[in-house]
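Subject — a protein and its fold
Fields — amino acid sequence, structure tokens
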Amino acid sequence: MSDFRRINENMLVSPQLALEDIAAAAAQGVTTIVNNRPDGEEPSAPQGDAIEAAAAAAGLNYVAIPVGHAGFSEPQVDAMIAAMEQAEGPILAYCRSGTRSTLLWALASAKLGEDPDAIARAAAQAGYDVSPIRTMIDMLAAR
């Protein structure tokens, strides 16, 4: 059951994907799946290799940028920027609830120079709150 939430024209986020969600994503024009969930975090959920295989079968690119509950690192932000810059169409990023995916997108967008207030508004319209990392967003945007 798909719960894709559009942040902007090029970014969607979702809670944990089921294998059948991959075809639904492709049907909506998604070209890249970004997995922000570490393998083994929920053993009963489809793991990265299964999602990657389903993405390949649907003609989609797949990128794994696992984010644990410890937080975000600059290499993860840079990997998300690379995924965003290399995507040939909309990206669907997922984790357990979509929150880590949204926060990682927010940090990457800030580092790319997007306005922090616009980032916060876009996330909020999708049902996500970036206030826990707002200081980091402001810092990255100021660089």
